[in-house]
């Protein structure tokens, strides 16, 4: 299993207008964070990929701390994104899914 950690920037551009007074990170931006973490550690996403399975289970807000865990088996990568609120508390599963990498 591989792992990356990051804190979602309070001024992340994806929060602009999404949603006023209740900002949350759009799913596509969360998926981009996963892909950037995998690319930075393992590479191999240059040829592109498909996303056959993707579930968003909990909102990610400004300043939240993320832990991205993944396992890779040949051309398939399964991941989970765990989120801890900026204010503290328990980690909750924010998203999970699978990427199919192109050879």
TrEMBL record:
Transmembrane stretches, start-end: none
One Pfam family, short name: ApeI-like
Residue stretches making up the ApeI dehydratase-like domain: 4-81
Residues making up the signal peptide according to the UniProt record: none
InterPro entries recorded: ApeI-like (IPR054545), Dehydrase_ECs4332_prd (IPR016962), HotDog_dom_sf (IPR029069)
Lineage top rank: taxon: Bacteria
Name of the protein described by the UniProt record: 3-hydroxymyristoyl/3-hydroxydecanoyl-(Acyl carrier protein) dehydratase
Species for this entry: Sphaerotilus hippei
Lineage per the UniProt record: Bacteria, Pseudomonadati, Pseudomonadota, Betaproteobacteria, Burkholderiales
